[in-house]
Each structure stands twice: as structure tokens, then as C-alpha cells.
Task: structure prediction
Amino acid sequence: MSTALKNKEQPFRMIAKTLFGLEEILSRELADLGASKLKTMNRSVEFYGDKQLLYEANLWCRTATRILKPFTSFKAANENELYHKVSNIEWGKYLDIEQTFAIDAVITKSQFTNSLYVAQKTKDAIVDQFRRTSGRRPSVELNNPDIRINVYIYKNECRLAIDSSGEPLFKRGYRRKTGKAPLNEVLAAGIVMQSEWDKKSSFVDAMCGSGTIVIEAALLARNMAPGLTRKQFSFMNWPDYDQQMYDLICEKAREAVIPELNFEMLAADLREAAVYDSQDNAKEAGVVENITFKHCAIKDLIPPESPGVLIINPPYGERISTIKNEIEELYQSIGDAFKRNFTGYDAFVFTGNLDAAKKIGLRTSRRIQMYNGSIECRLLKFEMYQGSRKQN
Ligand SMILES: C[S@@+](CC[C@H](N)C(=O)[O-])C[C@H]1O[C@@H](n2cnc3c(N)ncnc32)[C@H](O)[C@@H]1O
Result:
């Protein structure tokens, strides 16, 4: 996406946070938006750009969870030094006394051990400065504050950033209804992008649950910015918020939407309520017209014509309690369905149950390590050409 918006501001440093395994994909998304000096790190990507890019990154990045704007860093050996150095920052530049705020603290390999205490000390230093200078103080609000400050401490290096997103970016705003184990929207988008689906052949999620995977795929195919359904980003509360610029970016994003798709997208689930939920969510996301919904088991699902991509996120057995045999039978039936009905498809299984996945009984052509929350998962690829070979 490129816009013709003009902006002469000096580029500044930003950090896009993401989930494990999605760093390279996020880096490509940012490069497409015009980010420079990209540096891929663990669960994050550093980049440079201007205010316009900061707004666009929030609106467009499918695999970013937050966009941070670092504004200072310093060394601190203990909490008192942290308090002192935070007190030296001119907080009136970032926070108005009438605004609410919250501190998120993350600590890695540090003599600081308690992130809550670090957040508390930082908060104390900020409110004490306001009290000293004006006799009043801004209020802390943990849920939905106006301004979020991110404190990251690595060893004794402290980096302070202002969080431009606020609510994490996976909260797209379209998912009103969920089943038992819905995927985070950023993870679902990342899975679709990992599959390298060409956005012009058939797409199927045969175990759709609340529909996150197929909705993210439809948003991608229609070039719909994932943030367009969201009403609020934290940068809207910043003193330099340029509403005209943001409105123009949104207008361009709406113009960039591909109105129709000329291939089939199919979502199905064994549970009838899941089919209704995913349909409602797709309606909220603005893609319900692009997806056919079916209530059936994977073994009975007849997919649209190949070539195509199938992605499923079956129950793992850990999060949805089912006895071991049932889970193994389910994974076996997945392998049978792939062989019987999905010839010509690239079939992907995203699972945290690697033992059960062996029961699929087909050879994988790719295995990508990812996490679903704290559960280590794999995205397994099976190429279902005629006569797919058995696993060794
Ligand atoms: C982990 S959930 C999927 C969550 C989904 N990715 C989301 O983001 O909401 C697994 C889904 O598989 C469905 N399921 C279980 N066995 C099935 C089968 N044999 N055929 C089709 N769907 C099945 C369940 O009803 C459940 O909705």
C-alpha cells in the first residue's frame, strides 16, 4: 500500500511487537508500507518512519500486536535509580494532567525481578512530578487508559516507549462471538500468511470455530485494512494527533478494498453454534458475502475445486478436554479426509498436540514452529497431490 500523503517530518524509531515466528512476515508488511532501517528482533521489528507511517502501521499491519514509539533509554541499577531517572523526564510532553494513563513493564535477564514493582515505581515518579509542579496528578486507569507507557528493561538498560496502539492490535473489533478456544486474530492472520496462499484460489477452514482464520484470509484477499473496524487507537489521544491525516489514510484504505472475489471461500464446523458465530463475526468484519458457511464434520465436507488452501485448527486436547483416544481418532479422520476429499490442496494443520498430529499419517512438507499463548504449536503443511505418500 502506498499513499500520496505528503509529510516532511524527520523519521523516528518505532518498534512493532508481534508473536513468535511472525517477525519476518511483519518486517515485510512494514517494508511494503515504506518503513526503513528494518531490524528483525525476538517478537518485534524495529523500523523508522514518520507519523503517517505510525498511523498506517496501526491500521494495516496484520501481524503486529502493538506499535511503540521509544522516547528515551538509560541505565538503572536499582528501583531508586529508575525512579530518579524517570523523574528527570519532562512528562508534560507525553501526558496531560486530565488524561488517564497506565504503565506496562517487561523485564528480561535483569536484576529487576518484579515487573509490577517496576511499573509502580515508574508510575510514582510520574505522578510525583505532576504533584510537585502543579499540585495535581493524572489518574491511573488500567483498562483502556488514554496514554500507555511501555517500560522495557533488559539487564540494566531501560527503554521507555509510548504505545501508539492502546488495546492490542489483535482486537480488531469484529469478533463479538467466540467458542472455547478462539485464535488470536494476529496469530490467525500470521498462519494464513505463512501458508503463502495466493489469494486467488479456493480457501477452506473445515474447523472454523468463531471463524478467525477464514475472516483474516478474506480481509487479506480483499485488501481490507484490519484496523478499519476499530474505533480507537492510543495515538488519537496524543497532543500531536493529526485527525485530518488519519481520516485521509482511512479514506485511502477504503478505496483500496477489492470489492469482489472470484474464487470460493468455505468455512465449516461440526458445531452448529460455531457456524452461526463465525457468520456473525464475518458480518461484523464486512466479509460475510465472500464466505460460504456449512454445518458438517470434516469427513463430510466437499471443498470447492482445487487448487486451494485448507487451514484447520483442530482441538488439541489440552485446552478443550477430550479423552486421548477421541483426539487421536479425530486426527486420524483428518488425515483420511485430506486423502479422500482434498486432492490438489495444500492442507495446513495448526496444532499444539504433536503426538496426536502423528495420527494424521501423511508426510509433512513444512513444519513451522509457533505459539498459541504459552502452548508450543506447529503449523504443518501437507501437499495433497494425487496419491500422497504415507509418513515414514
Ligand atoms: C480450536 S477450535 C477452532 C477455533 C478457531 N480457529 C477460532 O479461531 O475460533 C476447533 C473447532 O473444531 C471443531 N471440530 C471438532 N471436531 C470437528 C470435526 N470432526 N469436523 C469439523 N469440525 C470439528 C470444533 O467444533 C471447534 O469449533
About this structure: The chain has two domains: 12-163, 185-223+259-383. The chain has a mean pLDDT of 94. The chain is about 30% helix and 25% strand. The pocket of S-adenosylmethionine is lined by residues 179, 181-183, 188, 206-207, 209-210, 212-213, 269-271, 274, 297-298, 313-315, 330 (CB under 6 Å).
